[in-house]
Amino acid sequence: LDDKGRLFLPAKFRDDLEEGLMVTRGQERCLTVYSLAEFSVITDRLREASLTEKNTRDYVRLLASGAFQETPDKQGRITLAPLLRQYASLEKDVVVIGSINHVEIWEPRAWETYLAQQEQRFADLSEEIIPGI
Q1: What is the sign of the dihedral through the CA atoms of 18, 20, 26 and 30?
Q2: For residue range 49-76, what is the model confidence (pLDDT) as tens digits?
Q3: How far apart are CA 90 and CA 105, in angstroms?
Q4: Cβ neighbours of residue 113 under 8 Å, at least 6 residues apart?
Q5: CB 66 within 8 A of CB 30
Q6: Which of 38, 26, 35 has its CA nearest to residue 107?
Q7: 3-class DSSP string for 66-92
Q8: Residue 7 has what DSSP assignment?
Q9: Backbone angles phi, psi at 43, to 5 degrees
C-alpha cells in the first residue's frame, strides 16, 4: 500500500476487475474483492434470504456496510478505504491471493498464521470437498 492507501492490483487480476469492483470485509479479517458481476450474484442471493433470520441480517449488515465500489486507475491501483484497512490490519505490505471467484487481501502475518493453521486441514479435506482428486 502506498501512503494514500492505494494498492496496485497484481496484473493477473486486472483484466477481470478493470470495469470496476467491490471491496468488502472478508472472513478471517481479510478483505474480499469481487468483480461487479460477481458481487451482483452475491447480492441477488442475499435478497432471496430471509431477513427475519438474525444471522442473515447480521451478515448482510456487515457485508454491505463495509462494501466500497472502486474502479482501478490506469496504473491498476485501487484505494482501500480506511475502515477496511483497519478491519484487516493493513499498513504497508499486503498479500493478494486469488480464490476462484474473488481476490483476497491479507495482512502478511495473518496470512502466514492462517496458512500454518490450515495446511493439514487442507490435505485432510481434499477428498471430502472434491472426491477423487
Answers
A1: positive
A2: 998 999 999 999 999 999 999 999 999 9
A3: 9
A4: none
A5: no
A6: 26
A7: CCEEECCCCCCEEECCHHHHHHCCCCC
A8: E
A9: -70, -30
Q: With 0-12 CB in 10 A as exposed, 13-18 as middle and 19+ as buried, what is 31?
A: buried
What integer pLDDT is reported at residue 118 of this predicted model? 87
Q: Between the CA of residue 131 and those of 5, 33, 57, 119, 124, what are the distances in Å? A: 42, 29, 34, 18, 12
Q: How far is CA 9 from CA 40, 64, 120, in A?
A: 21, 22, 30
> Tell me, what's the pLDDT at 124?
78
What is the C-alpha separation between 93 and 112, in angstroms, rounded?
Answer: 13
Kindly report the number of other CB atoms within 10 A of residue 58's CB atom.
Answer: 10
DSSP category for residue 51: T
pLDDT tens, residue by residue, 90-118: 999 999 999 999 999 999 999 999 999 98
Q: Does 3 have pLDDT greater than 70?
A: yes
pTM for the whole structure: 0.90
